[in-house]
Specification:
This protein has helices at about 1-30, 40-60, 70-80, 80-90, 95-120, 155-174. α2 (about 40-60) packs antiparallel against α4 (about 80-90), α2 packs antiparallel against α6 and α3 (about 70-80) packs antiparallel against α5. The chain starts with a helix and ends with a helix. The protein has a single domain (about 1-174), classed as Bromodomain-like (Up-down Bundle). It is globular. The longest helix has 28 residues, at about 1-30. By secondary structure, the protein is an all-alpha fold.
Length: about 170
């Protein structure tokens, strides 16, 4: 079961990357003829954030991958998205008030996970100068526990999830 999940989560990330590309094209095209219920987008946010929560807990609690400083920051930004999305789904009148924090959490998480993804690549030349992820204080943020299909790491999964939240929030707002 553990092996299945450790392959399923990266596979879901690749599928979500394709779906996000299609959603981004939909947003850019500005097609007005297609109407999709707002509730559907909040359901997608709930599923996306729940998958992120399950994935983060799976890797830390089941696989025993210790989270680094940036992983914890990403989690702190991820966890509130789930209950906020549920409230937005159940209370349509509150959606205008709930949209800004969901969007802000998504943008913040995207920025941190993008930076974290850069740290784990060999392209980022300044990664040895970074002090926020000091291995003496815990796990180094540059440590890759795995790489699937040549690019899917835990920070890439996080980035994909946060970008999904941002794109869904932008789609709901248009």
């Amino acid at each position: 079961m553990v092996n299945f999940l450790s392959l399923l989560l990266p596979a879901m990330t690749v599928a979500l990357n394709i779906g996000l590309f299609a959603l981004a094209l939909f947003i850019i095209s500005g097609k007005k003829g297609i109407t999709i219920s707002e509730s559907l987008f909040f359901w997608a946010m709930i599923i996306l954030s729940l998958a992120g929560i399950i994935g983060s807990l799976f890797y830390s609690e089941v696989m025993s991958f210790a989270p680094c400083v940036l992983c914890n920051l990403e989690r702190w930004l991820l966890y509130p998205i789930f209950p906020l999305s549920i409230v937005a789904l159940l209370s349509p009148r509150s959606r205008k008030e709930i949209w800004p924090p969901i969007f802000a959490l998504g943008i913040g998480g995207s920025m941190i996970s993008f930076y974290h993804s850069l740290l784990q690549t060999d392209l980022f030349l300044l990664k040895d100068l970074i002090t926020i992820c000091n291995p003496k204080s815990g796990v180094a943020c540059t440590e890759r526990y795995f790489v699937e299909w040549g690019y899917v790491t835990i920070p890439v999964m996080s980035l994909t999830m946060f970008l999904g939240v941002v794109l869904l929030a932008v789609t709901v707002r248009r």
